[in-house]
Amino acid sequence: MTNITKHISSAGFVGSGNVATHLAIAIQEAGIKIDAVFSPNKSNSEAFAKEFNCRSLEYYNDFEYDTNLIIIAVPDAKVEKVCKKLDDNGKLYVHTSGITPIESLNSKSRFGVFYPLQTFSKGKELNFAKIPICIEAKYGEDRQMLLDLARKLSTNVSIVNSEKRKILHLTAVIVSNFSNHLYHLADEILGLNGLDFNYLKPLIHETALKINEVHPLDAQTGPARRNDKATIDKHLQMLKKHPDYQYIYQLFSEQIRKKYHG
Fold first, then answer.
1. Integer angstrom CA distances of residue 31 from 10, 42, 118, 159
2. Does CATH number 3.40.50.1980 belong to domain 10-160?
3. Under CATH, to which class is 166-261 assigned?
4. Where in the chain is the domain with CATH 1.10.1040.20?
5. For residues 26 and 64, what is the distance between their CA atoms, to the nearest angstrom?
6. Are 8 and 31 in contact (CB under 8 A)?
7. pTM of the predicted structure, to 2 decimals
8. Which among 110, 105, 100 has a CA at the least distance from the CA of 134?
9. 97-112 tens-digit pLDDT
């Protein structure tokens, strides 16, 4: 192991998308220097470099010698391929993926994972202090450095291995991506009937807040929870022109009914 420091004072990014941008904001606010960014999308890379007052690189391996940490913030399927394009020069390389195992970086002598468990969208500010950050590393010294860095960004930091992190990623998709798709489905149905999605926002907010005080099993309400077949049948009839949505409604209703009524 070469080029080892006891703390991370500078970082470079491979990737300039939503995760990279939000993470760079938090890292810079914590006093860590952003040295440079590389992205195949030149315009994105230049915009990132301008925002964080760092260099936009022409090639993967133009990072400064004394850059401590290289954060690979690219789509999950590209992590291993991108890592192999980077020189093994003693720097600490991490990816930010939930589903990708730590072994995807084993072409490097020092590697780890820095996974912020959150949904990231452009233009949407986040309180990084509340975001769970999951850490993993090949070496204990690197693990400690990543923990120290994570604790500068968040109060919710833990060591999570690749197998458990995959479970977190799976369940994150269920509660975030699937829920958002249902919001879109509802918005489309409302729009087709001359109604505004804003009607549902207080309900969405209350449902989300309730989970802080009530276990999900106890928080469930609605016709399927009550085994109200008459209401369910009326809703299914209303969706007859949208068979895909009808299928989703029926699937969810049956799952809820079985959970509570066998």
1. 9, 26, 22, 23
2. no
3. mainly alpha
4. 166-261
5. 21
6. no
7. 0.91
8. 100
9. 999 999 999 999 999 9
